[in-house]
Design a protein that fits this description.
About 45% of the residues lie in helices and about 15% in strands. It is built from six helices and five strands. It has a five-stranded parallel beta sheet, with helices on both faces.
């Protein structure tokens, strides 16, 4: 396994996703995040599926943006189908809706709503 954690996020939340990856990787936890870890010339979909299947854990940056993202919902569905542990890292005071609510209904969330985000990333590690 080339990585421990798959990080799922909406592009609109990329700064938070990058901070989470940096925090985890500084502690020696190997992360996979798109587009950084997609090999040029490889199908985006194939890369995502392989990365999820090769992970033991998924961190989803949970926000209104990711809640509405069809791509993020597909990633979460693939994680559920592959028995990958999911940790919702909630950065906004929202409740998941639709398919996202279905997939995350039984998961314990890590609330990261109050600043500074670094203390929540430390708890995540």
């Amino acid at each position: 396994m080339a990585h421990d954690v798959f990080v799922s996020y909406s592009n609109k939340d990329k700064p938070v996703a990058d901070a989470v990856v940096a925090g985890l990787e500084n502690k020696g936890i190997r992360c996979w995040i798109a587009p950084r870890d997609i090999t040029p010339g490889i199908s985006w979909g194939d890369a995502i599926i392989n990365a999820i299947e090769g992970s033991s854990l998924m961190v989803i940056i949970l926000s209104e943006n990711s809640n509405r993202s069809k791509q993020v919902v597909r990633e979460v569905e693939r994680a559920v189908a592959n028995n990958v542990i999911i940790i919702p890292f909630r950065i906004e005071d929202i409740d998941p809706t639709g398919a996202m609510a279905y997939f995350l209904a039984t998961e314990h969330w890590l609330d990261a709503i109050t600043p500074p985000i670094e203390k929540h990333i430390e708890k995540l590690t």
